[in-house]
Amino acid sequence: MKGNKLSRRDFLRLTSMAIGGGLVLAACAPQVPQTDQVAQPAEAAKTDQSETQTEAPPAEIITIEYWTPWGTSNEAEIQAMAAVFEEHHSNIKTNLVIGGPGGGDFNELLLARIAAGNPPDMTTLWTSPPSFGVRGALLALDEEMATAEYATHDAFFEGSLQTCQFKDKTYALPHSSQAAAVVYDKTWLEEKGLLSDPEEFPDTWDEIRALSSELVEWDGDTLKVGGLIPFVSTEGTVTWLYDVWSGLNGSQLYNFDDVAYTIDDERNIELLHYWLSWLDEQYRGDIDLVAKQGVWNSAGSQSAFVLKQTPLTVAGQWDLSYEQFREIDWELEVARLPVGPHGTKSITGSWPNWMCVPTGAKYPKEGFLMAEAFSTYAVYKWYERVFDLPSWKDFPFDVLSRDLVANFGEEKARKMNDFWFGYREDAIVQWASPIYDFASDHINRVFDEVMHKVKSPEEGLAEAQQIVQPKLEETVAGL
Fold first, then answer.
1. H-assigned helices in 47-93
2. Which residues, in sequence order, are CB contacts of 366 under 8 Å at separation 6+?
3. For labelling alongside 460, which of 36, 115, 385, 427 has CA 20 to 30 A away?
């Protein structure tokens, strides 16, 4: 998070709550200064937008309240989106509560206001909307979507919208969706005589593990150079992608279609055995020894990748927005995540920003209209600076984010733009479980215990399955 100095991963970890408390909110935004090197869409909204804008406003002007956990460093982008919204709806003004109201944890304050019956009219959410919605904290938006000007059910990419849905109810609009991939230092690999062409980059677990082994250098207990280390269980990018790594091996942790957990599937057991053998082979069998020496799954400013401790990492595309890539003297490349022994193709994750209307909002219809604007025709005001992939199908995808152009130049930025938008089409459905936070707490715990060799993969995954699946069945039965 820019202004609050808190990453999306830290925010989720710090505010994660058990099912009894129920709900978690989080947010982030890449940290980038504005530049002038970007083409703006000539018309981001539909052609009939002018009709609404030229209508005489009603006699009463109302003001709606929007809470966002994004910090003050993103205030300009939020204000720009709000200005587009207000231009489109001249009878509505907005009160923007940047960073939340203060005086406590954002999530707890929001839930307290919902419980008291005086929440904001719209808010940004950063964890599973279905898990909020089924417990009554968010309004279902389907009736509004059925007659919406822009935010109809078919206006968004299917995978992004599914993250908002449970049992035919839609509890949020997906503002943007983030993906993850292998990010690597092409120059470093070339200098070592190793593969660096994206077309030739390793595309299986065995191949990338072999490349990793060529890079690892130890000096006593100091890991001078690391390879790929996708299993550091204390890192947020790692825990976010557990179900992606499961899918890369042909399995899943949660079956979206069947509404069932499959945590102890044999291919998930195989995944953890594979990681343990990789840990033993290249990293002395000690996950803590590795974890304390760097942040290995990120391309952020303090990551091992940026600090030249490794030429390989797994990162979300938002990391490429950061200033640390503004004047690099080496070439950065991206590649799809490698496929496991039982996988059929490379897939990636999806981490949207969600726009929601809390239960009890004073102006729920107007709150929806603001969520619609932020997720559709006003989203270009965010994307022109921040490299978050819009979920709206009508977004002009030939437009480049300014921060990406500033970091890599227009030609490279366009290549990256095409890569990330294309890869997002292979994203799995995440966040859609009605007990997402509860399940994630237990899945993350047992993965951590397995990587610390406290439990075997079989024992740990069976335990999580036995806890999580009954809770899911209990929750669904009560709906």
1. 49-54, 75-88
2. 62, 64, 89, 92, 121
3. 427
User: For residue 391, what are the contacts with CB-CB under 8 A and spacing of at least 6?
Assistant: 156, 157, 160, 161, 174, 175, 176, 177, 352, 375
Q: Which two three-digit tokens encode residue 106?
A: 């954002």
Q: How would DSSP label each residue in 419-474?
A: HHHHHHTTBPP-S--TTHHHHHHHHHHHHHHHHTTSS-HHHHHHHHHHHHHHHHHH
pLDDT in tens, 325-352: 998 999 999 999 999 999 999 999 988 8
| CA gap 314, 88 in Å, rounded | 40
- CA–CA separation, 343 and 347 (whole Å): 9
Q: Cβ(194)–Cβ(210) under 8 Å?
A: no
Q: Which residues are CB-neighbours of 6 under 8 A, at least 6 positions away?
A: 14, 28
The partner residues of 333 in beta bridges, in order of sequence, read: 184
Residue matched to tokens 């995944």? 271
Q: What percent of the chain has pLDDT over 70?
A: 87
192 close to 214: Cβ distance less than 8 angstroms = yes
Residue whose C-alpha is closest to residue 306's, from 292, 287, 327: 327
Residue 360 Rama label (left phi>0; alpha psi -120 to 50; beta): left
Query: What are the tens digits of pLDDT across the range 170-213?
Result: 999 999 988 999 999 999 999 999 986 778 899 999 999 999 99
Residues 6+ apart with CB under 8 A from 441: 16, 18
Give the CA angle between residues 258, 13, 470 to the nearest 5°. Answer: 30
CB 124 within 8 A of CB 356: yes
pLDDT at 58: 55
Contact 355, 164 (CB under 8 A): no
Q: Which domains does the chain have, with CATH numbers?
A: 8-179+351-424 (3.40.190.10), 180-348+435-477 (3.40.190.10)
